[in-house]
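== Folding the chain ==

***
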Amino acid sequence: MVFSYRLYLRISLIAILFSFLSSFRGRLEGDGVSVASNHVIKDTIPAFVMYGSKFLLDSLENFDEVSIKEYRDSLMCYRNKPKGIIEEIDLFLAIKLMKKEAVYSLIDSLFDAEIIPYALINQINLYVASNPSYPEDEIIMGDTSFYPANHFYQAWNVEMPHPYGLALSAKDSTIELILAGRGKSDKFQMPVVNTLTSKFGWREGRPHKGIDMDLEVWDTVRTAFPGMVRVAKYYGGYGRVVVVRHYNGLETLYAHLHRLKVKPGDTIKAGDLIGLGGSSGHSTGSHLHFECRFKGVPINPLAFIDYESQSLVSDTLVLKKTKYGYAAFPKGTQFYVVESGDNLYEIAQRFGTTIYKLAELNGIRRNQYLIVGQSLRVI
């Protein structure tokens, strides 16, 4: 296993201290159990690293996968749920598909977060300590080399739409993905040819990680690019959902379906039928929720799809790693750096476009004040 020196030193010192305290406490309480927070841990489980006394799943008595997923889905109904709790639960569920070495690398990356999720780290450490047969040298799902874009992911999960941890994209800088014109990634088709009802971004104070397209129940939903079906099942707020991994590394998601027409492992072409439209899951009416992600990080589909022409803006997508995800834009995009005295109207005139288009391209309001030095996408 590969640890950072800092994490190795921290783990070594705390493990020694925890072993001593566990032994001492066991003598005081009697043989049989040692207690960590609200969790009862059998003597046969080795000591593990603790950071504080909280666990991610403190409120659960049963820690089987079904109970955890039901708990996760119940939290989706609460507006005032703790920030990031859903993502942390998804990340915990995903560790079952990682090598032990990858799990510890993930823990290492969690210590670099702005707000360190100690409860999640404790839950992961407890899981690993409780499973001595946890595989160290092979991926649980078996050989994944024949799956699309395996060099990006090294895993294939047919149960969860978003099983990837933060570490997967942590070291990325700038990546170019071929969308059309070469090899297997040579076609594109809109999943639904209909009205766009909701865009990517903040909506009612919450992040909307895809776009919504109007449709009627039983309408045909098609895949956007060639690839292989990774997930096809009912999953929480998504309802009946299909996730397709494409040969360029992108994954697209199609949610709230009424019927599924594919299964995991199916190889499909752009435009193939994958399901029928509906309103399953957390949905207020029939529509298609469409997401595009790379290594689990959501990307605005309208960054590379021209919805008016129902076509790609460019045959190559550029992903530039940022603090919070990826800045996505078509190759050949032109940017303008705001100078003193600039306004959107003058910039639009200079580049032969409109204020509305500039605002849409940059995710800003049409009357928003500009900041000197701010980069605006103009083409």
User: Anything to note?
Assistant: DSSP finds eight helices and 22 strands in the chain. Confidence is low (pLDDT under 50) at residues 1-9, 13-45, 135-142. The longest strand covers residues 227-235.
